[in-house]
Amino acid sequence: MNYTWDHSTPDTKEPVDYVNPNIGTLSYKTWSTSPTVQLPHGMVEVDPHTTPGIGDKYLADKIFGFSFGASSIMASTGDLNIEPKANASDFDHDLETVSPYFYGVLLEAYDIEVMYTVTEHCAYYRFLYPSADNSQLLVYMPGSVQWFYRPGIAQVEIIGDHILEGYHLSRNVKTFFHAEFSQPFAVYGTWKNKEVIPNSRVQSGEEIGVFITYHTPCGERVEVKVGISYISTDQAYKNLAHEIPDWDFERVKNRARETWNRVLGRIRVEGGTEDQKTIFYTAIHRALQRMKDITEYGQYFNGFDGQVHPSGDHDFYTADQPWDTYRCAHPLQAIIEPERINDILQSYVRMYEQYGFIPNTPNIGGDHASMVGRHITAIITDAYLKGFRNFDVEKAYEGIKKNALERTMLPWRNGPITELDRFYSEKGYFPALPVREDMKVEDPDRWRENVAAIIGSRLPYQITWLPEVSVEEWVQAVDPWHRRQSVSTTLETAYDDWCLAQIAKVLGKGEDFDYFIKRAGNYRNLFNPKIGFMAPKTAEGEWVEPFDPKLSGGFAGEAYFAEMNSWTYTFHVQHDVQGLINIMGGREAFIRKLNALFVEQYTMDKPAFWGQFPDMSGMIGQYAHGNEPSFHIPYLYNYAGAPWRTQRRVRDIMSIWYNAGPMGLCGDDDIGALSSWYVFSAMGFYPVCPGRPVYDIGSPIFNRVTIDLGVKTFEIRAEDTSTRNKYIQSAALNSKPIDRPWFYHDELVNGGILEFSMGPRPNKAWGSAPASAPPSMSR
Question: Which pLDDT value is given to residue 1?
Fold first, then answer.
């Protein structure tokens, strides 16, 4: 049987035809991705709401509805029942079509075909019913299904016989909608607190919804168009009237397809396998969903403080987590969508003007604090040094400097400075809690040798972590769950301060440059040469002992680290890899340590290790590709004279930890971060240190990559690359031989051709000279 939403893949595939939104919908970790229909940075995103509690969406057995702005809409037949579980329907992935611009599925319980597409601010649904006396559409407002939706207060009104309007208020932010139905309502009403009220037109509160009933002959079609706004229902209506003025589903779908294809097509690839192209274009698609453009057609926008403000050219909000995205998601956008970057940077300036500081996590209505570091600094610096200057850089600099000097460094906090921040300013490292007297040991080295026995002696089996050694926390501002993360806080702040120094230098702020470049070297204060790892140090200047670089720190290692351990964070010095090489004892010692990272095992059983470090997924030894602090590490061989090892490692990671199926991502995609790494690495280069406009060279998997820069193009050619031919034999940039495993951003955006000769065995001499290494703070 062919369904109305079936569509075949064309003989000649365009970039959009390779995208598979079901990649990553079965996760190695906590929560999977979702097959979202959304335009690039679109304000509206539509998903199937599948069985609650099943984090792996691909394995869910039922659909409960489809996102309807901040609400959910579900179709059914038979007697009215507002209970979500009673209305849920089985579905079959073999009777489902997923794409970035269109979704179609059969609700098997009712034999209803559902499909939808989107514009920037609107969603368009089509429901095809079987013959039924009572065909229902139910709109669940947020709060009416607690396990699905954000809590909050909602209001809805039925206007005439084919319009719904309303809003949802959560975290001081209102999301308004205006919905139009293609068929007049035969029967309608609302409910509140599970009480059904026929013929009711207005409802408000925390647990409310709307039901609409139709009498449908076989094949009856009901379509629904919804406009969304952060300003008002009137603005939602204007958005809908502007973007979907008629009832032409195919036109809207085709426009959405063309929009995606145009953006995805800014990078064209030749060669490689069909799976590699699928992973590649799906990864670009995920990266471009990351940031939402909230510009509307009115003269105002709903600001980051929840209030209405005059609108600029574009205004953005995002569920962005800079800790995840500064590394490669933002740098990728700077290449693919340079026209958006200045607007994004100016949005950060508006946040500063509205809040008085730039939130670590810019997100309308959120708590604006998460993870560790102030990586908005890195995002602004990286863009500015890549030539993006059409924003208020002085105001932006004022904001990031204020963050560095007047806002706490504590993870998951955005408050004023604390005694720990003052200590950092004086001593150059974030102090760990002191060790309790009863946990001290006479011989820490012997203790480390016996860690496996200590772990094995702890029963029952699930309780295998090393015991906590610290005294109780006394600084009230410290998050009790995420703790101090003292080593990560030091290392990531040192990097942010390096970024701040770079932009201070360009702006001619010499005193600031001297101050922050000195702080950029603070990573050295936590390298313990005795054990060869970054390690926690107390305010008294004593190394925390006992300490194991793999297992100490409790859940997620967060007494000392952010979701990882010292094996990873020892290499978290992107801005001064040469300096790290120096304190480790030189190139050969550094390479030995990197090699050891990729083979070091768990000490305990793998499931028990993941019980302590759930974010350390996608593991190769202690390298954990499923979490962002690892991303740059495979490229560090370039700095130590062994680029061939980088080429081998990045190929292994792409082959092992990415595929074109539901388990195609080895960790949380984190707003396109994990996907962006693949896009860069598949092209053959990666931004190890955002803030320095340089790319490290890896190993391209495509014969040819063409990046559309507008009036110019940049090509990466590796005609003979293959699974075996992973090693670079020689390289040329614009026909001139190069013997360095890196190139400048300017060399990319000025257009040209980067050519590689590839082979099955490494050329260990290429790019290996000390003078060929990428730049570092210490060089």
Answer: 44
Do the bridges between strand 713-717 and strand 752-759 make them parallel or antiparallel, or are there none, so unpaired? parallel
- The answer as to whether 391 is a domain residue is no
pLDDT digits (tens, 9 = 90+) for 703-728: 999 999 999 999 999 999 999 999 99
- Phi, psi (5° rounding) for residue 326? -65, -25
Residue 526, domain member (yes or no)? no
Q: For residue 396, what is the enclosing H or E element?
A: helix 393-406
Structure tokens at 475: 């600084």
- 3-state SS string for 730-745: EEEECCEEECCCEEEH
DSSP 80-93: ----HHHH-EE--G
SS3 content of the chain, % helix, strand, coil (to 5): 30, 25, 45
Strand 713-717 versus strand 704-708 pairing type: antiparallel
Helices (H) and strands (E) in the chain, counts: 21, 34
Digit-coded pLDDT (tens) for 335-364: 999 999 999 999 999 989 988 888 877 665
For residue 130, the enclosing domain spans 15-264
For every residue of 35-58, DSSP letters joined together read --B--TT-S--B-EEE-TT--SGG
CATH of the domain at 203: 2.70.98.10
What's the number of domains the chain is made of?
Answer: 1
pTM of the full predicted structure? 0.95
**41 found inside a domain:** yes
- Asked if residue 605 belongs to a domain, the reply is no
